[in-house]
Automatic annotation (TrEMBL):
Residues recorded as bearing 4-aspartylphosphate in the entry: D53
GO molecular function: phosphorelay response regulator activity; transcription cis-regulatory region binding
GO BP: regulation of DNA-templated transcription
Keywords assigned: DNA-binding, Phosphoprotein
Organism: Massilia eburnea
Protein name: Response regulator
Domain HTH LytTR-type: from-to ranges: 138-237
GO cellular component: cytosol; protein-DNA complex
Length: 238
């Protein structure tokens, strides 16, 4: 099991690491100091499980959980405040640890993680093409902080060098990710309409005389020649 510890307080991370190294079956442990770093570590470290603090500056643990790529690592929330228990389980947490927790309580959480991981299908056993649950929000790092962008507010997507512009009614923040990888995480609501763009199909009002997709908001989205037939077919059956 590969485990990621996410907590903005160094003593809390150190204590949990000391407890986890006593557990059997853990092959690697990484740490993140906040929600933004946690999502970066999820991408680079690929943990099986995350011990996730709820209260953190800028991006909370609950927001991190809602932004995990699918299939998501298993989440155990850890916090000093019991009022977060219900929201934690609403976020599909495997367990909830109330600080300060002891070795017995941690062992129970570890047992739940082992059981759930053992029950998960391997990549070879997983049916081909079976998607995970789509993301509900995206976290965009900007100067001075981090913006939470609900996926429901995104109208269309456009590549911009090493970023993807998330076009919403409130602007187009840039997410550092490839369009192909992002589309894999968003489910079937978005359809590739150009080599550099994808559109939320339900918002397309028409194809204009110049060959552009016109959204209900009035936004114009490029439509590639190689994508037109698939878009027309999708619009006819939406």
């Amino acid at each position: 099991m590969r485990v990621l510890i996410v907590d903005d307080e160094r003593p809390a991370r150190d204590k949990l690491r000391r407890m986890l190294v006593q557990e059997q079956g853990i092959c690697a442990i990484e740490e993140a100091r906040d929600g933004v770093e946690a999502l970066e570590k999820v991408a680079s470290f690929a943990p099986d499980a995350i011990f996730l603090d709820v209260q953190m500056p800028e991006v909370s643990g609950l927001e991190v959980a809602a932004s995990l790529p699918q299939p998501a690592p298993l989440v155990v929330f850890a916090t000093a405040f019991d009022e977060y228990a219900v929201p934690a389980f609403d976020a599909n947490a495997i367990d909830y640890l109330l600080k300060p927790f002891d070795a017995t309580r941690l062992q129970r959480a570890m047992q739940r993680l082992r059981e759930r991981l053992a029950a998960r299908p391997t990549q070879a056993e997983r049916p081909p093409g079976l998607p995970g649950a789509p993301l509900q929000q995206l976290l965009v790092t900007e100067r001075g902080g981090t913006r939470v962008v609900p996926v429901a507010e995104i109208q269309w997507l456009e590549t911009a060098d090493n970023y993807v512009a998330l076009h919403t009614s409130q602007g187009a923040p840039l997410l550092r990710q490839t369009l192909t990888d992002l589309l894999d995480s968003l489910g079937g609501d978005f359809v590739r309409c150009h080599r550099r763009a994808a559109v939320r199909l339900s918002l397309v009002e028409k194809i204009d005389s110049q060959g552009w997709l016109v959204l209900r908001s009035g936004a114009l989205v490029p439509l590639g020649r190689n994508n037109k037939a698939a878009i027309v077919e999708a619009l006819a059956h939406r």
